[in-house]
Design brief:
The strands form three sheets. Strands 1, 2, 3, 4 and 6 form a five-stranded antiparallel sheet that branches. The longest helix is centred in the C-terminal third of the chain and has 35 residues, at 483-517. This protein is globular. By secondary structure, the protein is of the alpha+beta class. The N and C termini lie far apart (65 Å). The protein has 24 helices and ten strands. Belongs to the protein kinase superfamily. ADCK protein kinase family. InterPro entries: ABC1_dom, Kinase-like_dom_sf, UbiB_kinase. Residues 96-340 form the ABC1 atypical kinase-like domain. This is AarF/ABC1/UbiB kinase family protein.
């Protein structure tokens, strides 16, 4: 095609390198299906350092990805976090991908750094260690000291990286369009959505100003907490290719000998780290997308430091509410509620509802009565989605990856760690911020919680009834199954809502005014109305 010829001409050399690497590692089906085998001769053939005949297909792909550089490594890491799309054989292999590479010599970094600083490094910094603290595929990190005496970290993008990544993204974008058009069976892998996620993440990491802003966004969340530390940004020296920030002294949470020597209470630390992560995700809707041990530091004074904000996740209010519903369904062992949340997330998908219902019930049964391993539970949940041809929204997939990573770190600190229990205080704060009214008594707050519970039941029942009726156009059994039970459930829920609304309206609108008047009789009447209404709700709940 002309368009294919144009893309190949524009990025001919890079396309040849990609094809040669893929062929060299035996990933020939991809090359053949995309029709790029002929361009491999444009690049020098790379001979793998291992005998690929001894490697499985996932192992070959992983090795090829590492050889292709940061764009493909990032794509592989995204897919590694998607058990709703790939089988364990693939996700486990892709999890081995790493972005650590051999550092670029200082002589190559120095010209670009000094161009961005606008002055020689030894003028800007009182001290500068030219041996990098870390070298990744996107940037290298150095330690330095300002003339003011402050210790800082200097992050520098690798020279010439943007040109390569932009070429890779153009080629991958074109390949995605071919896949969508020519092979619709790959639609469930969401190639266009994965491509948008990849491009957004990489362009974000290529602009270190973006990381600096992310850092300040997270810092603002914890501005009223002394126990959570986020590094200060030195904006006078920060630009697109250079980031200068405060150096944080601390111990990685997986360095147990140093933690023990410092007398750190690891159980308390696990609770505090979880509380901080969930405050970001559930309360604020902005969270650290990769809270692995290298990005968290245990600091003196029982503090926790977070670093490296190249990528952050964001959750809308609606998504956060759905997540609370999911957690609630799991805790209540409610298979119907779990199924309703899944259907809410699938959008235009048309799953087999009978199979999905059985899968939801089996999932609840597997995790009932056992000590919950939250990481394993989320992975199992995403596997259930894949087995039912469902795919998680990208924002939730990012959150789930963060939760699984955080859960693994906390379990290293406390083998008996239970994220559900640890999440309790944050979840309560979230519910209070949504459903309580400032200045109300605890009794009125209880009414608000009851109202939320009753209201949340009705959409679930109606949603399940509608999708089952829709499916019933094809399968009569599903159309008739459980209609009477659903009707009774809707009637009960409607009655609860009616009573709860009356009680809540009285409590929230009239009670405060009565209390202002200071009339004991009115206060007594108001309390009686609330108690009677709550009692009526309890009786309705028990009458099943």
């Amino acid at each position: 095609m002309l368009k294919t010829a144009f893309v190949a001409a524009r990025d001919r050399q890079r396309l040849g390198e990609i094809a040669a690497v893929l062929i060299g590692y035996g990933v020939t089906k991809v090359v053949e299906r995309l029709g790029i085998a002929q361009v491999a001769r444009l690049a020098k053939r790379r001979t793998p350092r291992v005998d690929i005949t001894r490697l499985s297909q996932p192992q070959r792909v992983r090795r090829a990805i590492e050889a292709l550089g940061p764009t493909f490594v990032k794509l592989g890491q995204i897919l590694a976090s998607r058990p709703d799309l790939l089988t364990p054989e693939w996700t486990e292999e892709l999890e081995k991908l790493h972005s650590q590479v051999s550092p670029i010599p200082w002589e190559r970094i120095r010209p670009q750094l000094e161009e961005d600083l606008g002055a020689p490094a030894d003028e800007v910094f009182a001290e500068f260690d030219t041996v990098p603290l870390a070298a990744a595929s996107i940037a290298q990190v150095y330690r330095a000291r300002l003339h003011s005496g402050e210790e800082v970290v200097v992050k520098v993008l690798r020279p010439g990286l943007r040109k390569i990544i932009e070429a890779d993204l153009r080629l991958l974008g074109h390949a995605t369009r071919i896949v969508v058009t020519e092979w619709p069976e790959f639609g469930r892998y969401q190639p266009q959505e994965q491509m948008r996620h990849l491009a957004s993440g990489l362009y974000g990491e290529l602009d270190l100003i973006n990381e600096a802003r992310n850092c300040e966004t997270i810092a603002a969340i914890f501005s009223d907490r002394d126990d959570i530390v986020v590094p200060k940004i030195h904006w006078e020296w920060t630009s697109e290719r250079v980031l200068v920030q405060e150096f944080i002294h601390g111990i990685p949470p997986n360095d147990h000998p140093r933690l023990d020597a410092a007398g750190i209470d690891k159980v308390r630390l696990a609770q505090k780290g979880t509380d901080a992560f969930l405050q970001m995700a559930l309360i604020e809707g902005v969270f650290h997308a990769d809270p692995h041990p290298g990005n968290m530091l245990v600091m003196s004074g029982d503090r926790i430091g977070f670093i490296d904000f190249g990528i952050i996740g964001r959750l809308s209010e609606r998504r956060r509410n759905q997540l609370l519903m999911l957690i609630g369904s799991m805790l209540k062992e409610d298979a119907d509620g779990l199924m309703a949340v899944l259907l809410d997330w699938t959008g235009s998908s048309n799953p087999d509802l009978t199979k999905l219902e059985a899968s939801s019930q089996a999932f609840i049964a597997r995790h009932t009565g056992a000590t919950l391993d939250f990481g394993a539970l989320l992975t199992d949940f995403m596997t259930m989605a894949r087995e039912n041809d469902l795919a998680m929204p990208t924002d939730l997939a990012i959150l789930f990856k963060g939760l699984v990573t955080a859960d693994g770190v906390m379990r290293q600190l406390d083998p008996n760690f239970d994220l559900f229990s640890a999440a309790g205080p944050t979840v309560k704060r979230k519910l209070a911020s949504q459903f309580s009214i400032k200045g109300l008594t605890r009794k009125v707050e209880a009414v608000g919680a009851g109202l939320f519970g009753a209201a949340s039941e009705l959409p679930t029942l109606i949603h399940l009834m509608l999708v089952r009726l829709k499916q019933g156009r094809v399968t009569v059994e599903i159309e008739l199954k459980g209609i009477e039970k659903l009707t009774r459930g809707i009637e009960r829920a409607a009655a609860r809502i009616a009573v709860a609304l009356i009680v809540a309206a009285f409590a929230t609108q009239l009670a405060p005014r009565f209390m202002d008047l200071g009339t004991p009789a009115f206060i007594t009447v108001g309390a009686m109305v609330c108690v009677i209404g709550i009692g009526w709700l309890v009786l309705l709940g028990r009458n099943k």
